[in-house]
Amino acid sequence: MKVLLAHGSPAAAHAAQVRTLASDVSAILGEEVCSAFLSDESLPEGAQVLPLFLGAGKHMMEDVPAMAAASNCTLLAPLSDHAADFSAMAYDHLTRESKRVNILFALYRFAGFEAVAAALHAQNKRCSLVATGSMHSEPSITSVLNLWQRDEIGAVTVQPMLLFDGHTLARLRQMIDASFATDVTLAPVLSSYDGFTALIANCLKESV
Asked: SUPFAM superfamilies given for it (predicted)?
């Protein structure tokens, strides 16, 4: 059995998105794929587990391995190994109508998300202006937006480098509202984009 292990959130939309993803990936692979969360008491015994985390923070370094070991599960390659693919998917959607866009990519934090930040900057010629900001470290989303407002950059699209809805997305909205920026569009989380499900399915196939 294969398991998609997500963080979990008090937001009902988070769990619904993860469960829908597991069902859709199962249909692509033609085998059982179930969802699980860090709050679960255990994982299915002996399962192959794909952690749905873009970064390498405490959860990925400590909590996820401990949870997997307790149920004799095999941890598959982290999503950070596919950072270039997630980055390309985001750019594809953000530049679909025009490449003349200013994009601020919102990372959870910089520490542990180096692979994602590097992948985003490696493709930064795909639009007018690109920057990264953090929701939990500096430079923050608010400070980057204030800088761009001061420099009269114009319209800005903020792309959350988050997989699902949840309380972190709510924090991002608060940081945008706290800035002086007057023309900001908040893009959807990554799981909302066409191609996300296939990308997760591919992560499972390549890890086997």
From this structure: Chelatase
Claim to verify: residue 69 and residue 148 sit in the same structural domain: no
Q: What is the pTM of this model?
A: 0.94
Within 161-195, residue ranges assigned H as helices are: 167-177
- Bridge partners of 54, per DSSP, are none
Residues forming beta bridges with residue 134, ordered by sequence position: 107, 140
- Residues 52 and 88 reside in one and the same domain: no
Dihedral angle over CA of 113, 119, 123, 128, nearest 10: 0
Task: Report which residue type is found at 8.
Answer: G
Same domain? 187 vs 87: yes
Are residues 65 and 114 located together in one domain of the fold? no
Non-local CB neighbours of 86 within 8 Å, separated by 6+ positions? 54, 79, 116, 119, 161, 190, 199
- Do residues 59 and 33 make contact, with C-beta atoms less than 8 angstroms apart? no
Residues 50 and 18: their CA atoms lie apart, in Å, by 12
Q: Are residues 184 and 203 in the same domain?
A: no
Contact (Cβ atoms closer than 8 angstroms) between residue 145 and residue 184: yes
Residues 60 and 108 reside in one and the same domain? no
Q: Are 144 and 171 in contact (CB under 8 A)?
A: no
Using only C-alpha atoms, the chain has a radius of gyration, in whole angstroms, of 17
Here the tokens at position 54 are: 């873009």
